[in-house]
Amino acid sequence: MDAVIEYAPLLWQGTLTTIELTLASAVLALAISFIVGLARMSRYRAVRWSAVVYLEFFRGTSALVQMFFMYFVLPLWGLFLPPMLAGIVACGCNLGSYGSEVVRSAVKSVAKEQSEAATALNYTVYQRYRYVLIPQAIPVMLPSFGNLLIELLKLTAVASLITIADLTYMAQIVRSQTALTLEPFLAILVIYFLISTILLSGMKQLEKRFSRGRNTVARQGG
Question: Residue 91's Cα: distance from chain center in Å?
Fold first, then answer.
């Protein structure tokens, strides 16, 4: 364990990189989730089919292969992505495809009468989604988004294969320089667990906050 303590700065640096990769990918995945999820409910067939093609492609192919494609193949076509950016785009696009289904199903779960009432009030499509449907769908989305966030954290571990110096990459360095296997990987298991616990705790707080607001509106409506 002394060797792990000696190499603690490396593991700390890897922890920060993993957190940065996770949060940046989560922002991209969230944006994609709403864009693709809402596009699947568009009244325009071309928009719906474009969203379906995106969804099926990223759900139906390996996230690791997607990451390799963006880092190793795109340069053949003149598009060079730094390792971190390639990892963010690959992770964000992959998890965004799953998140889009969360958004779509949550919005569709809102009572049809809500949409009909908004239409009766002459709301535009944007106003209907912005002020009526999405606010009511967010509390439904949050538990699933919490699960996807943890999946995203675990997915970032494969980013070490494209030279991103995350936790897994740093553990490999410690192992190669100390000939130890148990200690560095046990250490990063604990770190991953702590990060996931913090992320889940944050999502639980968001769920409570939105649920409290939802209950307040329900009581006022009653």
Answer: 7
